[in-house]
Amino acid sequence: MSLEPFPAVSAVVLGIMQDGGLPHAGCRCPRCADAYEQPALAGYAACLALVDARALPARVWLIDATPDIKWQLNDLRGILGPRPGRVERLRPPDGILLTHGHMGHVGGLPQFGPEAMAADGLPVYASEALAGVIRESAIWRPAASTLSWATLTAGRPVTLGYSLTVTPLAVPHRDEWGAGTFAFLVEGPARSLLYVPDIDRWEDWPAARAVVGAVDVALVDATFYSAAELGGRPPVAHPLIPDTLAYFGESAGKLVLTHLNHTNPVLDEDSEERAMVYRRGATVARQGQVFSLINT
Ligand SMILES: [Zn+2]
Ligand SMILES: [Zn+2]
Ligand SMILES: [Zn+2]
Questions:
Q1: pLDDT averaged over the chain?
Q2: Which of 9, 52, 89, 272 has the smallest count of CB within 10 Å of its CB?
């Protein structure tokens, strides 16, 4: 993948798929079968990089550590540059911010551990409860113990750079460990962005409309277009795309859809469902897409 040209402070889309990615493990649906045949059609699990290229070398943070992280880091090779003293290796990012503990959002963390990138001291920002779940798991301990854990608290901004902050916002989402789920409000020097890859129901987050109304762009959970994708299984708790577009009404034009399941018809460029999204003024996120956070 090649990245679009990017402004000095920006958010870079490194993946737009639901946790299982595209192709999905064990799936022989036409979309997955094509992606197994042609890797160029594959898509990585949802991930957003924040880049501050005002510094040299540029500072880079990833929101979530996905199972596709090695490919996503490689897509940032031109920004990360070489690791000091090890010119054939990429410099690790400056930090990871975790939304929540599901597979597609933390599954790549062990890649920073001793078997792979050995990014000792890498700052990882997470809720205290999520950090506890990960660090207390015996199987995760070798990797987790090499990382530098920092606590995220809902509503408390973290300053990443001059006029660049990230504020975790608690959102309702399937919560097996009582560790919660964060959305992230990213405020750059001139533009703001909301990142909500996973949420159960917009109606259960009373601040949703106000938060979306206040930002310039909102990358939001668009896992499923319709319940038909579930093949008769009980409803999985994610909002459906038409309901999301209706819920945000006049703000729908700010929505950029991400975290798409492999079954989602908006993945097809020529689908009627995708056309409907664009008619409503929303768009579908693209791997490699760049959002400026400064005036350009
Ligand atoms: Zn997810
Ligand atoms: Zn599939
Ligand atoms: Zn989740």
A1: 95
A2: 272
